Amino acid sequence: xxxxxxxxxxxxxxxxxxxRARPRAAIAWSIRLGLLTAMLWGTxxxxxxxxxxxxxxxxxxxxxAVAAWAFFRASLEHRLWPSLGLLVLLMVAALGAQQAxxxxxxVILWCxxAVAALERLPLAAGLPTTAVALGAYTAxxxxxxxxxxxxxxxxxxxxxxxxxxxxxxxxAQRLLTQERAARAAEAETAALDERARIAREIHxxxxxxxxxxxxxxxxxxxxxxxxxxGEFRDRVLERVVxxxxxxxxxxxxxxxxxxxxxxxxxxxxxxxxxLVAAEPAEVSVSGEQRALTAEASQTVRRVxxxxxxxxxxxxxxxxxxxxxxxxxxxxxxxxRDSGGHGREEELAVSGSGYGLLGMRERAELMGGTxxxxxxxxxxxxxxxxxx
Length: 387
Known about the structure:
This protein is of the alpha+beta class and about 375 residues long. It has helices at about 1-5, 10-15, 20-45, 50-75, 80-100, 105-120, 125-140, 145-225, 230-260, 270-275, 295-315, 345-350, 355-365; strands at about 280-285, 320-325, 330-335, 370-375, 380-385. The chain contains 13 helices and 5 strands.
């Protein structure tokens, strides 16, 4: 345990600026700007500087600022030797500034290295580095031993207190992140439980009802086929067979909806090929195929179903082209028919007439669009939704 305390780094949350509140971050930036201003003032006041001395001093101050920034990045990534090397570079720069007569920048660099090492490095490396920096400061300080001792003790205490404060903020940040993750997992679990409950209800009510209808319609078909042939008998048989086919399709769609609720969704392109298997239709898929969100997948499926239903009602026998395109940020579906040569009025008036309107509203809720209207030959339904 003791070895871990001495060799462990402060957490990334503690070293990162993300865990700081805005007022605290503003104070930290103010301190940095103040120290940079003090270094510039201490470098360029006093003796008269020529152009070369001015340029050399400016490069030195900016170089120290870059080295300090690099130290903060290296320590954030827990890279020990680059961090120590940058601190040594800064302390050598302080020694050079002291030799050149710029005492204020030298003191700022030594004191800053002492506090930063104690705050951001493992204690096994931070304490010796702090001791070296404060030792150099003590050697050049001429304010008396008491003032020097109080200053070095204050800097050491300040560095350790800042370290403890950063660790506390890092721990609070980790706890907050864990709490958010737990709440998100809880909400996801609740959503999955609710979807499972809805799936059970649909299975117990709708799926059982459709299965019973299929049984009765099949029995009705067998009974009708036993009757003598005739126009009325053939028309009734045709309607019963159509109703049985619709019930079978409804049961298949219900099973697909149940699979979607339980997170067992087949690829959209496979669904489209199954959907048009018994139709004079063609499916083309372009773009890089990828997994879609549940909302986008269901929207594409429902729009395709509604468009093909409309073709059956309003343009029976027409050829249909279904195009699915995977775009970088969205999915595009186009259902185009060649136009029908006839129309069954009884089928054309069936339904509520709000199918495409409902699909358009579904697409708009997802931030997409749905357009439907006459094409060059027949009718075109075009859908685009984010995915």
